Amino acid sequence: MSITLWTRRDPFAEFDALVRRSFGPVATRPAATSPVATRSFRPAAEVTRDGDDAVVRLEVPGVDVEKDVTVEVADGQLVVHGERRDERTEERDGRNFSEVRYGSFRRTFALPEHLTADAVTASYDAGVLSVRVAGAYAAPAGAQPRRIAISTGAAETPAVTTAEEQTA
Q1: Average of pLDDT values for 111-116?
Q2: For residue 109, what is the enclosing H or E element?
Q3: Degrees (nearest 5) of the Cα angle 46, 102, 79?
């Protein structure tokens, strides 16, 4: 006679084990000097179009944006960098548990050549930093559309004409 042992599956425990295996020692707070503690986090970003403007949204909850976040335009790029600080001092039973990442971050986004820092504004609300780039999708001032002729023969050279020449 054989004895069969039945065990009940716990999907939540399986998921917890999967997360712990995937992210390793992050589940327990490491010492401040360990390499795990110095890992940075990368805030989620979303870039959307609002008319001719581009709107960049970054999720940075728990960050003091006035003190710890900088928005700059440098070398044709929008640069957002800052730091999420762990300022907690509370300790329970000598062990801490945290799945929140702390550290510095830096996100860069390419800007059209014709934009300057004057076209950029930023605001913060409910953990989301919104950066509006005015005119990001607008054609630069003075630029005229140009039509490029399509050649179909082997020896033809395509001609370049402006929109004004085409209507004349």
Answers
A1: 86
A2: strand 103-110
A3: 40
